[in-house]
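Appendix B. Raw example, untouched.
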Amino acid sequence: MDFLRRFRDETSGNILIMFALMLLPILSVVGAAVDYTVKAQEATRLQTALDNVVLALAHEPMAKDDAELNALKVKVNKFLSDNYKTPSGASPTVTKITRERGSFSIEASATIDTSFMKVADIKTMDISVSSTAVWGSSKVEVVMALDNTGSMASSNKMTELKKAAKNMIDILAASAYEDGAVKIGIVPFATSVRVPTTTTYKAADWIRFDQFRVCSYRNGREDKCWFESHPDKFKKSNWQGCILDRDQSYQSDSNYAYDVMDIINPTAAAASHHGYDTADTTTLYPAVQSCPPSESALKTVVPLTTDFAGLKTAIDEMTPAGNTNVTIGVVWAQALLSSAKPFDQGVPPGTEGVQKIMIVLTDGENTRNRFTDDNDDSNEKAEKIDARTKLACQNAKTFGTVFTVRVIDGNQGLLKDCATGTTDAEKSQYYSNVTNSAQLTKVFQGIANEINKLRLGS
């Protein structure tokens, strides 16, 4: 009886028994904390991966049908799988893709194995994340001044340019959060630019119909050529649509010569100092009776528009021919970005909430403009035109942001200086040196994404 009584009253082993009974719950709590920490870490990894994928693919145009949507899903899945794997090596699952005007969203999930919670028969945990890329709410007006000279026919440059330019149009069009939020124009240039030879342009009061290409001959062949003014001989019925550089006649400051800028009165209010003055013929745009050699098929200028399909058709119709005059491309891009006639499709420069962008692409050195002739050697001509291009670029930067692209050949220093920025480091963000024409699409995608100012949203 004493033995039983002592056994009943003995308490020295209770702690061990109690600990044994509590061990499973303690391990479950500690294990759950470890597993949930791992889950949080994996959710962060998956979120980072998804953010990268959204930003990488945000330039993709909106899917027009099920086939394009399925193709986009395949691309998203591959990119995400390449960027993230669970600890067990499993790929995540894309659960939803939303591609709307101005935004691109992806939702994804993954399943990870537990380590400690298995004792409670919880073998896996799910992770769900989402990411959205959205564009800024500002509107954009973009003009592409594109070299259409004969050298663009080599090294597949024109083919790759067409592909890149059309892809950029798709990217920018997809970012339009409302109708009119994105406008795009095109200035194909050689030594001249062209406009349609319709009645509207033949009657335009901003065009001066007076220029003729005049040549001297030796042994029955053209020897040297230059341009002369003969308004009394000009026949509009024979005009091919080519227009040359404006006059260099604003004398108080060479920066304001009409051939290098859209401004005609720098002292006037911003809304009224652009364009031309019918009372002053030196401000008008001089048409030439016959286009410079090979430029009669130069694609006509397309003013700012929201007709993105028409823009892509115009790009497809570009034909490389003629010599190089970067100045006229930059100046006409200014004219398109202006709100004043001859092209008034844009808003006034400096309008709040509207970005004005110029993209200048060329593959060669300046070789000819209206003011050079064959008596100049090639170096003299290039230096003369380079000086005008430099002034044109300075003036272009007053409109907005200037991106420049050199394709294999061309004056690197001139084009880099033409780009937005004051230091070499800043200019390098806006100047691209393309050494292989196949790089053009990637370069234009980068410019488009910079224009769109992509940011991660909630």
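End of appendix B.
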